[in-house]
Specification:
heterodimer, A: about 110 residues, mainly beta, 6-stranded mixed beta sheet, 4-stranded antiparallel beta sheet, globular, B: about 120 residues, 7-stranded mixed beta sheet, about 50% strand
């Protein structure tokens, strides 16, 4: 079975600071894809960043970057220069291809304070 | 990416009734997915809907309760049948554009409350 674990139900960060959200996963597949989605109170699921397992280089998207440790099955999200608009639920997710469902973690609620 | 709309955005329904949720995509896509997000919880896949074939349901979800239609490559519906308060959730559709990307893009969700 494929599982995704987010061990931090809630995190808080001050504006302009950096925060790291943790995610671990378990799979027997060798080829897979990892994602971080953001869900603000509007409930719209927004793709933040993605990582292909076959790529060794960590993905980055502006202020968002990941630390992908394949051997440890770890996929953490770093948010730099945090902004008030970053406050949301963040879900780590995993799939094995285009026809594959997304398996989600339980989410981390991020609070951004002044 | 893809732009996805859902109707209705929210509804309050009485137990025992049914609600049909529509999902419209701005481009043709092969794979459409329906997820449920119960209050304060993560997302769980209900079923995968391919155009021209029967939907494939996940364990714990059955066609009689959640019938799905996929009449063309840009549209799908999910019906929540014989509703009970336990069906109160956000229902989201998502698509994979099939252009070599593996991420899914989500609609804005339908918030359903069953009284």
């Amino acid at each position: 079975a494929q599982t995704v674990t987010q061990s931090q139900p809630e995190m808080s960060v001050q504006e302009a600071e950096t925060v790291t959200l943790s995610c671990t996963y378990d799979t027997s597949e060798s080829d897979y894809y990892l994602f971080w989605y953001k869900q603000p109170p509007s409930r719209q699921m927004i793709l933040v960043i993605r990582q292909e397992a076959y790529k060794q280089q960590n993905a980055t998207e502006n202020r968002f970057s990941v630390n992908f440790q394949k051997a440890a099955k770890s996929f953490s999200l770093k948010i730099s220069d945090s902004q008030l608009g970053d406050a949301a639920m963040y879900f780590c997710a995993f799939n094995t291809g285009t026809a594959s469902k997304l398996t989600f973690g339980t989410g981390t609620r991020l609070q951004v304070t002044l | 990416s893809a732009v996805i709309s859902q109707k209705p955005s929210r509804d309050i329904c009485q137990r025992g009734t049914s609600l049909t949720i529509q999902c419209q995509v701005d481009s043709q896509v092969t794979m459409m997915f329906w997820y449920r997000q119960q209050p304060g919880q993560s997302l769980t896949l209900i079923a995968t809907a391919n155009q021209g074939s029967e939907a494939t349901y996940e364990s714990g979800f059955v066609i009689d309760k959640f019938p799905i239609s996929r009449p063309n490559l840009t549209f799908s519906t999910l019906t929540v049948s014989n509703m009970s308060p336990e069906d109160s959730s956000i229902y989201l559709c998502s698509v994979n554009t099939g252009t070599g990307d593996y991420e899914q893009y989500f609609g804005p969700g339908t918030r359903l409350t069953v009284t």
